[in-house]
Amino acid sequence: MSRLWWDSLFELVNTSYRQCQISCSLSCKNPKDLKSEIRKADANGRLFGFRAWDFGFISHPPIEFNCILTDQIQAITVYFYTMNMYFIALVCPEEINQQVLKWKLWMKEKFGCEVALRSPAHVTLVPPCWMKPELEDNLRDTLSKFSATQNRLSICLTNFSNFKPRVIFVDLVQNAGLENLQYELFRFLLAEDSYPFRKDDRPFHPHITIATRDLHKKSFHEAWEYFKEKKYQAEWMADRVSILRHNKKNWDVIATSQFK
Asked: Coil, helix or strand for 4?
């Protein structure tokens, strides 16, 4: 896989491993996490690597930190891989998307929330991850094969809920068919052993996001007061699953596979 050199170099500026400091020209979101991981690593000349998603990076493509740590000062070279971000979802019909869009725009006007506006209304089945672009066609084919084995299912939306203190969403009626779809999709993808998707340890809680990580904690209560008493009911027959790809600004639907 080709590597692109980025203007980035992490240097250990102290010979003491326990007291090492890291100076970096890369603007990254979690330098403290990186420092912590380096400190915890084996210092006995071991070669090791890190992946961007291990540190929660979302604004940069995957990073690999290749380094050999000894008692002497060593440099850590940072490479950026040429990858895109993808996720798999049930994209809502346009009528529901337009209704959800109104609530997203209200959240933007009232609280400055914009993250949820970057994608159409959807129910995530496989969360975002970085993947090599050359795997994209294979993923389309894999998803088509999977979809051909699945039946349509009814998705019922009911009112609103939240993940405190940053996420507000349209809630879904508990649906064994949807849970099975998500389970079988992951099983199918992991069986291919070609894709970097990883099963979330948290329970599957399908929802349609209205506001997410850019909703400030101090604004959450006011926003939730608005939604908690609102009533909303809708239903659609899900008959397809979609791949979405990040274009460095928004999420685009790049492929859709019909159920049988």
From this structure: strand
